Amino acid sequence: MVFFFCGLLFAQENEAKLWEYLDMGGYTRGEAHIPISTTKDKSVYLANTIELKVKSRFGKNISSFVAIRGRFHELNEDAEADFDCREGYLMFRGRWLDITFGQQIIPWGKADGINPTDNLCARDKTIFSSEPDDQRLGSLAAKIDAYFGDFTITGVWQPILKDSKFLIPPMEDFQYMIPENFRPEDIKIKDPVLPARNISNSALALKCSSYLRGIDMSLSYFYGYSTYPDFILGKIVYEPETEVEVLPVFNRIHVIGGDFSFVIDPFIIRGEGAYTIVKKPKTLEIRQLRQSYLHWILGLEWECIEDMVVSPQYSMIYIPDYKPIEEEPEHPYLRVAKANRTLHRQDRQYTHIVTLRADYRLLQKTLLLQFKGIFFVGNREYRIRPKIVYDINDHFQVTTAADIFFGPKKSKFWMYSRHFSRIFLELKYSF
Amino acid sequence: MVEIMERNYEVNRTHDRCNELTMIMYSKHGKKRVRKLKASALVMENGCEKRLIRFLYPPDIEGTGFLVHEHKGKDDDMWLYLPTLRKSRRKLSSNKKDSFLGTEFSYGDIVGPKVEEYKYTLKGEEEIEGVNCYVIEAIPKSKDVLKDYGYSKRIDYIRKDNFTRHKAIFYDKHGKLLKTLYCSDPVEVDPKNHKWFVRYREMVNHQNGRKTILLLDKIKVNIGLKEDLFTVRYLERGYR
Q1: pLDDT class of B240 with cuts at 50, 70, 90
Q2: Number of independent structural domains in chain A
Q3: How far apart are CA A371 and CA A357, in angstroms?
Q4: I need a labelling partner for B144 at 20 to 30 A (CA). Which of A58, A394, B192, B232 fits?
Q5: Is B233 an 8 Å CB contact of chain A?
Q6: Does B34 touch chain A (CB under 8 A)?
Q7: What ipTM, to 2 d.p.?
Q8: Cα B215 from Cα A178, distance rounded (Å)
Q9: Chain B nearest C-alpha distance from A28 (Å)
Q10: Are the beta carbons of A25 and B62 separated by less than 8 Å?
Q11: CB-based contact (8 Å) between A266 and chain B?
C-alpha cells in the first residue's frame, strides 16, 4: 500500500498518468482437491486463490513490487480465508549495484527441485498446489547485488526469521513417537516460538556467482536459523489433563555450498551441494536435533525428441557423525527425536535419492504433459506428481494433477499417503 | 550470390535494436493465439550478436525471457528466465530447428542462418507481386548444418531494391516441401547505412497446416544500448 501511494504521488508530481508508472497483473484460480488417501476421510477440499501483483517505477533507478495473495478455502463446510503479502519491496538499480529492501522471496540453487543451498526462502508445505512456487514465503530482507564484470557478489541480511511449515500427519501415525502409557491425543505440538527479534538472531548470506563462457557457477555461505524447526520433547503434564508437549525449536546453522551448470551437447549438466553445520544448544542431547550433514545433487537435462525434455538427478544426504537411535527407544525424548529425524530425512547415515522430471509439450506448446517423481532408495519411499496443463486461450489455463505418496509402514511417505495423496483440478485466469 | 546473401544478412543488422513484436499463431483449425514480446540486440566488435527477448503477453508467461550470446565457430550461450522459477537456467542453443515458442518459425529462422553455413546458386530473377527478386538456392555445407537447422534446401527470393527477403521456401531433411515464408512492408530504419526491417512476416507450414504471423509493431535502432543489458543479471532483474 505504501509503494502504491508512493507511485501515485510520484506520478502526480511528474504530471503523468498513474498507469504509466503502474503495471498490475495477477491471477485467480479455483481449485478442487480430491483426496485419494487410504484413510476414511474423503472430503473434497475447495479453494480459490487470488494473487495481485503491482509493479511501479519511480524514475530511472527506483522501482517497487508488491504481490498480495488471498486464499479462500473450504473443507467439510468450514470456510477460512488467509491473506498474505508475499512480497513487497523497493529496488534501487545502479550501474553496478542493485539494492532491494523489503519482503522478498530469494530462491537459490541451480538444481531441479532439491536445492541444498536454498536457505533464505521459507516454505509452507501445508499449501497444496500444482505450482511449487505457491509454497514459497517471502521474508523481510535487505539484499545487495554488486556486479564486477562476469562476477556478481550478493549479500543478504534477514533481520527476522520467517519459519517454514511442515506437513505433519496426525499423531496416530507417529506410533513410535508416543511414549508408552500415552495416547495419540495426549501429544500436543505447540506453536513455534520464533527467536527474539534482535541483531544477534538475524541471518546473513553471501554468494559469489559467475556466468562465464559455457559455465555458470556460484559459491555461497549462509549463517542464520534454519527455517524448518526441530521437534523436541517439552514437558509431560498429568494434571488437569495428560499432555505431552512437543516443541518446535529453531537452530542456528552455517551452510557452505555451491552450484554449477554447463552444457555438453546435447545435455545440460546441473549440480549443487552444501555442508550444513548445526549449532547445538548445550542443554540438549545431540540426537534430539538434526545433525550436521552434507547434501549434494547432480543431474542432467536432455531434450530427447523435439518438445520432450527429461531431467534425471541423483542426490545424497550424508551425516558424517551419525548417532543412531534404537528402533523402539525407551526414553520419551528419544521417541520424539526419532520422529524428528523421520520428518527431516535423517533416519540413516546415507540417504540416496533419485528424481525424474519429464516434460512433453504439444499443440504448439499449449499442452504440457509433465511427470515428476522422487524415490528414496534405501527407504523405498516414493512420490509421483503427474500433471496436465492446457492453455484454453491466452488467459485461461486448466490443470489436472496428482500428488501421490508411497512408502513402507511408519515411513514419512506412508504417513503422507494415508492423509495427503490427492488429485488437483484447477482453473486459472491470468490477467 | 554470396555477396547478395551477405547483403541480405547485413540489411537488418543494425548496431543495436529494440523492437516490439506481435506473434499470431494459427492452428490448422484456424484457432488463434497471440504472443507479444520485446526483442533487443547488440552487435559486438567481433561481429557476434547478443540478444535479449522478453515476453509481454499473455499474462501467464509475461516476464519470461531469453538471453543469447552468439559465438563464432562455437555453440552460443543461452539462458532462459522463468518468473515462476524466479531464476534463470542455462539452455541448449544448438537446437535451431526447434519451434520458436510454439510458432512455425524455428529458432534458426528467428536468429537467421549464417552466410558461411550454406552453398549458394543463383537460379535467376523473378517478379513477385510487382517486386523484382533474385532467386537463390541455399544448400547446407555440412551435415551438422542440416542437422542444426533441419532444412535440406532453402530457396530465397531477395529483393533487388533493398536486399530484404521477400519470400523463402524451406524443404525438410527428406527434401519435401515444408514451409513458405512471405514477407512484406519493408521499412528503412537507417537510411545512412541502408538498413531495412520487414514489418510483416508470415510462415506457413504445409505439412501441419499451421501458420504464424510476425508483426513488427515498434522499431528502435541505434539507440545506444549498453552491453550490460545483455547479461543474466539484467535477464533476471530487468523483469522486476
Answers
A1: very low
A2: 2
A3: 6
A4: B232
A5: yes
A6: yes
A7: 0.88
A8: 67
A9: 11
A10: yes
A11: yes
